[in-house]
Design goal:
Number of helices: 8
Shape: globular
Structural class: alpha/beta
Order of helices and strands: EHHHEHEHEHEEEHH
CATH superfamily: Aconitase, domain 4
Strand content: 15-25%
Helix content: 25-40%
CATH architecture: Alpha-Beta Barrel
Number of strands: 7
Radius of gyration: 15 Å
Largest sheet: 7 strands, mixed
Distance between the termini: 26 Å
CATH topology: Aconitase, domain 4
CATH class: Alpha Beta
């Protein structure tokens, strides 16, 4: 999964975990398909029904602020989101996203330029976002983080790592 291709879903600043995954479902929903159906429902009721595998969520500052609920990341993965690009992330959301195998990329210039519905390509190995004939670089991901993302999350990464060493 080093290259992600999809369309842009663009939102603003301070998108909190309650609108990414409504708190009322935190203890009642665990099935991935059901998690996907509730992704972004309090912010964008059309999102879950229209998002396609590989689509990219683009947002301003402080994406994923609020509670530490990991469902905010896992519901986006279950819905097929390929990456989240933001000006900045809540540190807990950022870690949860990586744990779930969801690239959380900080690239303010791309956020300013990308438009909702626009086709976008994200190349994790090259550290590059491309759309509309433009490209933007994002900070290189450490090898360990790339391994986690390529494995589909922290648990699959650790399983593979320790099975090799056993």
């Amino acid at each position: 999964m080093s290259t992600i291709k999809g369309k842009v879903w663009k939102y603003g600043d301070d998108i909190n975990t309650d609108v990414i995954f409504p708190g009322k479902y935190t203890y009642t929903v665990s099935d991935p398909a059901e998690l996907a159906r509730h992704a972004m429902e309090d912010l964008d009721p059309d999102f879950a029904g229209k998002v396609q595998k590989g689509d990219v969520v683009v947002a301003g500052t402080n994406f994923g602020c609020g509670s530490s609920r990991e469902q905010a990341a896992s519901c986006l993965v279950a819905a097929g989101v390929g990456a989240v690009i933001a000006k900045s992330f809540s540190r807990i959301f950022f870690r949860n996203a990586i744990n779930w195998g969801l690239p959380a990329l900080q690239c303010p210039a791309a956020v300013d330029a990308l438009q909702a519905g626009q086709a976008v390509t994200v190349d994790l190995e090259r550290g590059c976002i491309e759309a509309g004939g433009q490209s933007w670089k994002f900070p290189e991901l450490p090898a360990e983080v790339q391994g986690i993302l390529t494995s589909g999350g922290l648990i699959p990464y650790l399983r593979a790592k320790y099975q090799k060493n056993a």
